[in-house]
Amino acid sequence: MIIALFCTEGLLQLKIMLLLEKGTKCLGGGRILSHLSSFSMDCRGRMSFLKKILAGIALLMLFGVAPVCADGLHILRDEEIERGLQIMSRPIFDQTELDADSIKFILVDDSEMNAFVAGGRNIFLHSGLILKTQTPAELIGVIAHEMGHIADGHLFRIKTEMSNLSLQAMFTNLLGVAVAIGARSPEAGIAISSLGTNIASRDFLRHTRTQEGSADQAGVRYLQKAGLPVSGFLNFMKKLSSQEHLPESRQSQYVRTHPLTQDRIDFLQRVVDENPHVKTPFAWDEVHRRIRAKLQGYLFPNLALREKDDSVAAKYGRAIAWFRKSRLDKALAIIDSLLKVEPKNPYFYELKGQMLFENGHIEDAIIAYEQAAKLAPFSGLIRIAYAHSLLESKVNENECVAEAIRQLTRAIEKEKQMSSPHYLLAVAYGKQGQTGLSNLHLAEEELMQNNIVRAKRAAGFALSKLKKSTPAYQRTLDILAVIEKKEKNKKKNN
């Protein structure tokens, strides 16, 4: 399930507030923005806290707020793609002195061919780069090179105090731009507005020729120690070599941020010539094919539909493409055929759940998501999607809400930098009438978004409703302590 966030927060806030003021009737469901929670608390005299949350949810879905931000950096989240990247990269990570679990992939929806590291141990990969790699060896070659940059410290470092922020807030602070919030789906990525698609060409993301040579040597060392081929990275570099003498405006972002020289290619060629027969594991070929098929189906559905072979990867891409083109009948027919071939594939069930959910078949979506969650208990993203569908159910609502809370509690263990599980928990506890816990999770979400005023307001309201000496009460006190520290630091810096 590939999902991105869309549109700008200010536009959504204005639309919601105007519609609420007009008393618009609400039908359906979807993603509610974090700022709506504080707006609802400001207006308790006219509409109850829970009703305003549900009204906001309905409005987002009803009015289909999903325009893509112009000139923005769009981050995609997909469990299967991220897990596939981790599987192929783990042997490289294990050759470094870094904690492999601390290294994160961030997938950028951009047709430009680029990769870079920023904000700590985050490897940004453009979808355009992944789609242009023909083999897993090419892709892991790029990743090994970026790991060289991380190991050698060639990156823009994030401040320590940002470590408890959400992914969105972290990049807002890191890059100095506004973060946009999306609708329709649970939060599964970020879209950074007012930034432009040339983020990676900013001076702080450029590398010197010396740094490039150092990263090449480190990347080659990691590949060799892991028993993986260097030939893939060599092939990738040769693809770029024709751009070296072009004007910068005509070069790919990768060439602009990673200075290319013949010396670098000659170095890689000598390494490959010494041991030309190293191969990647056979299973990686299919992992790579499915990653590319999912991206192509999601981002370029017309191209995916031109693929006529009957491989699982090609069919997978076509199922996503038909879904993106609003042909649910064709999409479901293909995904059901794939489930007959691989009945224990959690990602096929996840995609089926997304197809059904986004077309209003909530109860059927729940069945698919439940199966996906059982087959992939490690996935926080799938649990969040499953919980979202449960909260939209009109059948056995009490049981569904209780199950959603269980799923979201587990999801938070895996997705510590996502604020959406807290938002959904706020909705779930609100449905149960537990306003203390609801506001606690609103405070968690606002704090992760670095919205200090709103977080303090929600935490204060939670404190007045929660029983003393309970874990929730103590967590609220912790949040208020963090807020107090942030306020003092702000005054000190001013």
Features:
494 residues; mainly alpha; seven-stranded mixed sheet; globular
Which stretches are poorly predicted, pLDDT < 50 over at least 5 residues?
A: 5-71, 156-163, 170-207
- The overall strand count is 7
Question: Gyration radius, to the nearest Å?
Answer: 23 Å
User: Structural class from helices and strands?
Assistant: mainly alpha
How would you spell out the order of helices and strands?
EHHHEHEEEHHHEEHHHHHHHHHHHHHHHH
Which overall shape is indicated by the principal axes computed on the Cα atoms?
A: globular
Strand count, sense and closure of the main sheet? 7 strands, mixed
Work out the helix count: 23
Helix share, percent = 55-70%
Strand content: 5-15%
Q: Please tell me the overall pLDDT.
A: 78
Q: What is the straight-line distance between the termini?
A: 44 Å
Provide a descriptive summary of the structure in words.
- This protein is mainly alpha-helical and 494 residues long.
- Among the domains are: 3-62, no CATH class; 73-274, no CATH class; 301-336, no CATH class.
- It is built from 23 helices and seven strands.
- It has helices spanning 9-21, 34-42, 49-62, 79-93, 127-132, 136-151, 167-175, 209-225, 231-241, 253-257, 262-274, 282-299, 301-306, 312-324, 328-341, 346-358, 362-375, 380-392, 397-414, 420-431, 435-448, 452-465, 471-493; strands at residues 3-4, 73-77, 104-108, 115-118, 122-126, 178-180, 191-193.
- Strands 1, 2, 3, 4, 5, 6 and 7 form a seven-stranded mixed beta sheet that branches.
- Helix 9 (231-241) runs antiparallel to helix 11, helix 12 (282-299) runs parallel beside helix 14 (312-324) and helix 15 packs antiparallel against helix 16 (346-358).
- The model is unreliable at 5-71, 156-163 and 170-207 (pLDDT under 50).
